[in-house]
Amino acid sequence: MKKMLPWMITTLLAISLIAVVAVFLYNSLLGSPDKAGSEGKVVAATVKPLSAKDRLAVTLELKEIKRNLKDNEKLVIISFAFQMDKKATKTELDQIKDIAVKPIINRILADTTAQQLEGSAGQDALEAKLLNEINKILPKGKLVKVSITDYLLTDI
């Protein structure tokens, strides 16, 4: 029995350690959705259904932005519609669209290849990047939806 005691203690300690690690991993990886994994993810804002008149009141359009992509052989001509949470935010964004919003769009497109824009998944990723970057510069209110209204990708 004396020879078995160290083995039993070692086995119990190993099982206890495994249990503690399992509980920790369970809480950190599969814990509440509010806490775990919220950093670095795109949080989609819920867009309330609006009437056409209300939607126009909170939507700003940027038409025909022309930019060559990262692979300098491609040119994109793209237009966007930005839906804000309230009319005051639209007014604010309208005032700074040329000095703040267009440079953000140019910077993102400059780092984007034609392959990254392929398909709806690529365009959704571009919309999500723009949503996150433009929301960072808004002092009040927030941008709730970015839509690509026109899109043309061509060779130079």
UniProtKB/TrEMBL annotation:
Membrane topology designation: Single-pass membrane protein
InterPro entries cross-referenced by the UniProt entry: FliL (IPR005503)
Protein source organism: Paenibacillus herberti
Main subcellular location: membrane
Descriptive protein name: Flagellar protein FliL
Subcellular location as annotated: Cell membrane
Similarity section: Belongs to the FliL family.
Tagged with keyword Glycosyltransferase: no
Keyword Membrane attached: yes
Role noted for this protein: Controls the rotational direction of flagella during chemotaxis.
Any one biological process term the GO annotation gives: bacterial-type flagellum-dependent swarming motility
Annotated signal sequence range: none
Keywords: Cell membrane, Cell projection, Chemotaxis, Cilium, Flagellar rotation, Flagellum, Membrane, Transmembrane, Transmembrane helix
Record-level GO cellular component terms: bacterial-type flagellum basal body; plasma membrane
